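[Discussion] Sanity-checking designs against the backbone

I'm trying to build intuition for which residues belong where. Below is a C-alpha cell string of 210 positions. I'd appreciate it if someone posts a full sequence so I can compare it with mine line by line.
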C-alpha cells in the first residue's frame, strides 16, 4: 500500500495533508525519511508522522438505518450520500457501502473498509439473505407466495432465485431473497402487477434491525 494512503486511512489526515507532511520531511518508515508519497509499505513497518507512530486500525463495520433521501454511494455531485450520515470521527476511514439501497429505500446498510467482507456479502454465489418489509399500492394476491417461491420472471426475462414471502396485512409483507439485482424488489412486484410504495430492509446476512 502507498504510504500516503496508509496514513490517511489510519489518521484524520487526508491524502493531500499527508503529501504536505512528506514535503515537510515529517514522515519516516523504519527511521528512514520518506520523500515520495507513492512509497510502498506492507503495514508491518514502524511508520512515524510528526514523531508519532501510526498504527493500522482494525477493520470497521458500521451498521446504519438509512433514512429516505440518501444514495448508497461515497460521493455524488447531485444527491446526499450515506457518508453524510456517519459520525465525523469515522469519516477518514474510507468506509464504503456493502451493496446498495435505493434513494427512497430505508433500513439496514453496512459500511466498512474491509473489502473482503464486501465481496463475501455481495457475491451472488454466497446467497446472502436480504429481508425486506414491503408496502404495496394494491392488495396482496393469493398467488404471490407460490410465484415468489418458484422464482419470478422479471419484465426483462430474468428469472429470480426462489424467495420467501410472509403476509403482514392486505398491503404489507416481508420478502426474503438471496440476490441483489438492480431494483430487484420493485421489479419483482412490478412483474406481479403491483407497485412497491415503501421499502425497508430489516436483515442482511446475520445482521438485523426492526
Ligand atoms: N430492491 C429494490 O428494488 N430496491 C432496494 O433498495 C433494494 C432492493
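Best answer:
Here's mine. Compare freely.
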Amino acid at each position: 500500500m502507498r504510504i500516503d494512503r496508509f496514513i490517511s486511512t489510519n489518521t484524520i489526515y487526508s491524502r493531500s495533508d499527508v503529501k504536505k507532511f512528506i514535503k515537510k520531511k515529517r514522515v519516516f518508515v523504519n527511521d528512514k525519511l520518506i520523500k515520495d508519497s507513492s512509497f510502498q509499505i506492507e503495514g508491518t513497518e514502524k511508520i512515524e508522522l510528526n514523531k508519532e507512530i501510526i498504527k493500522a486500525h482494525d477493520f470497521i463495520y458500521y451498521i446504519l438505518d438509512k433514512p429516505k433521501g440518501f444514495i448508497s454511494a461515497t460521493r455524488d455531485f447531485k444527491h446526499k450520500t450515506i457518508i453524510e450520515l456517519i459520525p465525523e470521527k469515522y469519516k477518514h476511514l474510507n468506509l464504503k457501502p456493502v451493496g446498495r439501497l435505493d434513494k427512497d429505500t430505508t433500513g439496514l446498510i453496512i459500511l466498512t473498509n474491509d473489502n473482503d467482507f464486501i465481496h463475501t456479502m455481495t457475491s451472488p454465489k454466497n446467497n446472502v439473505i436480504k429481508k425486506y418489509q414491503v408496502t404495496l399500492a394494491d392488495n396482496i394476491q393469493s398467488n404471490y407466495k407460490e410465484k415468489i417461491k418458484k422464482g419470478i420472471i422479471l419484465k426483462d426475462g430474468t428469472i429470480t432465485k426462489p424467495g420467501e414471502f410472509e403476509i403482514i396485512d392486505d398491503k404489507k409483507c416481508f420478502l426474503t431473497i438471496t440476490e441483489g439485482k438492480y431494483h430487484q424488489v420493485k421489479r419483482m412486484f412490478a412483474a406481479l402487477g403491483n407497485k412497491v410504495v415503501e421499502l425497508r430492509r430489516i436483515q442482511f446476512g446475520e445482521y438485523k434491525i426492526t
